[in-house]
# Entry
Amino acid sequence: MNLQKIAYPQFNENLYRTTLANGLTVNLLPRENFHKTYAVMTTNYGSLDTKYYNVQGKLCTVPAGTAHFLEHKLFEKEDHDAFDLFGEYGADANAFTSFTKTSFLFSTTANVKACLQTLLDFVQEPYFSPQTVEKEKGIIGEEISMYDDDTDWQLFFGMLRNLYPKDPVSVDIAGTKETIAQIDATVLYDCYRQFYQPANMDLFVVGGFDLAEISEVIDANQAAKTIPAPIQDVTLNTFLTASGQDVVTFSEKKMNVTRPKSMIGIKGMQPVPKGRAGLKYKLNLELGLYLLFGESSPLFQKMFQVGIVDDSFNYELEMERGFHFAVISADTVSYAEMESEVKQTLREAHQILEGSAAELALAKKEFLGQYIQAQNSLESIANGYEGRLFDHATVFDYAVEVQKISLADVIAAVDSLLAPQVFSTFRILPVTK
Amino acid sequence: MKIMDGVNLTLKPTKKYKTNRILVSFTTNITDPSEITARTLLADLLESTSVHFTTQRAVALKLSELYGASFGTSVSRYGNVYGLNFIINVVNDNYLAGSTNLLQETCDFLREMIFAPQIVADHFDEEIFNIQKQNLTAFLSSLDDNKQHQALSRMNSLYFYDQSQKIPTVGRVTDVPSLTATKMAAYYHQMLANDQINIVVSGDIATDEMVQALSDLPFTPRPSKQLDLFYSQAELQAVNVKNDREAVSQSKLNLAYSFPIDFKSPTRFAAMVFNELFGGSALSLLFQNVREKNSLAYYAESDMDFFRQEMWVQTGIQSENKDQVLAVIAEQLKQLQAGQIDEGQLKKIKIGMINSYTGRSDSQNTALSRGLGASLTGVVTTEADWVAGVQEVTAKQIAEVAGLAHLQAVYFLDGGGQ
# Structure
């Protein structure tokens, strides 16, 4: 394996990277002193990829929830379940699906080689049958029911429906009971062939493993497999072209809650730059939102002191392939006041940030420290890797990049997020008894 | 090591991490159930402000200056013992450019937050107190918005007879109104003077360096005592049953069992293996039979609490499947009690437990909780002890501990038909 070494002397880390002949990107980060090894195999395919052009160039549409369904079913084979194989080795295995990615993972302190082979094999050798697909509908149906009762999840998806009313990102990652009813083995095989190509995937291994030994295992395992030729540009995002006029600026829903919940959303209308410039834009925005809405912001203090919000006040930036948006939310009876304060801060964001040079210096210290803290966790290191989206940046790059940011960078990024200003409000209110 | 009477330090030196993590834990037996809620309010007050940092913003800015140190307070319960904990995690100076002394600055910050609350003339600052009280009321009243939490807490309230044990670890909303700024100041002084104190530290720190950094914390000696940890209650012959009807999409069925295990005997290893086999992992009987084989649930799991001698099962299901799920759960337990244990599965369960125990050793948080656990119980378990303890468990021992689990309470949060 022809590994490229990427050194981060400040953090005493060496990352090794290569792209195999079949197109699979591999990242290896050996960690001395650690008992555990964590490995995650990710495909650049998630819940919003419901439309694609197949190898014949035909436009295909699949039911919402297909990527997540595929994630569940990939473990089960004709004569065994991959969970059991990991069980034999004592390893913990799991998987998760997001809007744009599906990841399969294990962590173990023994039998790393065998576990890694198992991971590569179960992900790369699909088996779906009508019986096993039908059986899974009950389990996923219960997963959907569980999220139906999760009020924070409902708040988040209520906002997504407002911001992206016509796009698959607004549908629950697991789909609905109606959409999963339409899924069959053929749909799963089609999507598998389309998206689970090595060139559309990456493997990240971090922990107490032996570099030479593990590179060899991966090489040998991949060389032994015949994988069909890759399809170029397998994913298709169409919704970024949608205009801000589609946005639902306000809606609310009654649910079984004690306290009202409110969320303000800001839809990013400018395309995110590719590669490291995209990462830089993300870090600039994270810092900007922290200065405007973080725990050390004057706005939070002002609202906290008069009892408009408590510690449930929160903000989040979501930036994945093809979309980005920010949300600010709280559980509060004074939601109208909170909404108006937040919107006013957004309108004045440019001026507020211009006066925040001293706060930015502190915020950069904070972010650097947080990115160093994250390096204690093997899971944080591997899961924080965004693959091609930010040109293979890791948490070590985050820590390096954040130190270079200037106030002008932050202001420019926030101006860009707010140009034009596309806001929405979504509330969950208690059912009146 | 003992710093003074009633104040202990456990240092876990390691070069594995890039941070130093410090836990200061105040523990006590309580006399009145309302103290549970009082300790939560006190934890909130002590986390948010101090004499020098008079607003949450001032605290947040100070933490930024300490390179984003993660700081917080929490409350915990170990059977009859209640903890109020300060935790701070801060980057080791080795990973920062220039000359910094974050360890000393962090201890100075802890001294401020622990020893200098905003108490003037025997009461907490009224304005701050009122906001924290209002926030706690809102927080406690909305806990049941999480349906899994609601079902678990109602199951416990049904299972326990003891008033304190019935109450969730964070307290209950009906106890909040009686708490005043004066009472809380008195409670703070009492805790500071009398609680047992355990300080546990993980990081790349030498013992003398740590002792030096902590030496400015003005603790006073207090009688050192072994707290009364284990709660037990007599078993009921009949099972307590409660059904609540609510508009939820997924119904929750929870079962509580009495589970009297002597923590200080090797039986505890058999109990842990039993739980893992019954419903503690994805290879367990509950997961395999309730979820995989019968597609009745997304989650179906068991857990246990040695300090409260309780085991419980949680499931999220459709209302009409309740009887079937109850039957499947009972059948799995019966099998284990009868010693019908597949040797291959038992082997896998044990390997999995050992693997995951070893894996958790790669976390500073684990180091702190294991350190605190050893101080509280007086039971020191090395990694080798733990592994050997699990290895030695036999199918016969599992059947014996399974026989100790007796169903006592069934709580059902019924969402009705679809």
Q: What stands out?
A: Chain B touches chain A through 66 residues (CB under 8 Å). Chain B has two domains: 2-214, 240-414.
